[in-house]
Amino acid sequence: MLITVSVPSLLRDCTGGNVKFQLDALTLQEALNQLISSYPLLRVHLWTETGQVRKHVLLYYNDTNIAWLDDLNITLQQGDQLIVFQAVSGG
Q1: Residue 25 belongs to a domain with what CATH number?
Q2: How many whole angstroms separate alpha carbon 84 and alpha carbon 14?
Q3: How far apart are CA 11 and CA 44, in angstroms?
Q4: What string of pLDDT tens digits covers the 91 residues of the chain?
Q5: Could you list the residue range(s) of the whole structural domain that residue 11 is in?
Q6: Could you tell me what percentage of the chain is helix, strand and coil, using 3-state DSSP and rounding each to the nearest 5?
Q7: Would residue 91 count as lying in a domain?
Q8: I need a surface site. Which of 1, 29, 40, 47 has the fewest CB within 10 A?
Q9: In 3-state terms, what secondary structure has residue 61?
Q10: Structurally, how many domains does the chain consist of?
């Protein structure tokens, strides 16, 4: 199933200049795995060394933060979205 992935423009260097692209996966977990497989530079920006989503990163499956999901083996549907939000701080 093709889903749309959106990443902040700050991470486009990790995705070949793309801020919106499609992935083909059957489940949300497969899409997340494929995201890192296709764009390995994203791993350090999105996940800690222990595999946890970094504190300043929010990953949304459609309108739901994946941190709120009990299981990531959700079957994807046409038109689903995976959205990466990354907090930026500065002064």
Answers
A1: 3.10.20.30
A2: 13
A3: 11
A4: 999 999 999 999 999 999 999 999 999 999 999 999 999 999 999 999 998 999 999 999 999 999 999 999 999 999 999 999 988 766 5
A5: 2-86
A6: 30, 30, 40
A7: no
A8: 40
A9: strand
A10: 1
β strands within the chain, DSSP E: 2-6, 20-24, 57-61, 64-65, 81-86
CA angle 74, 51, 8 (to 5 degrees): 75
Dihedral (C-alpha) 26, 27, 29, 35: value to the nearest 10 degrees? 40
Q: Is the dihedral of CA 26, 31, 37, 39 positive or negative?
A: positive
For tokens 């970094």, the residue is 54
C-alpha dihedral, 67 to 85 to 43 to 52, nearest 10°: -20
- CA atoms of 29 and 71, how far apart (whole Å): 9
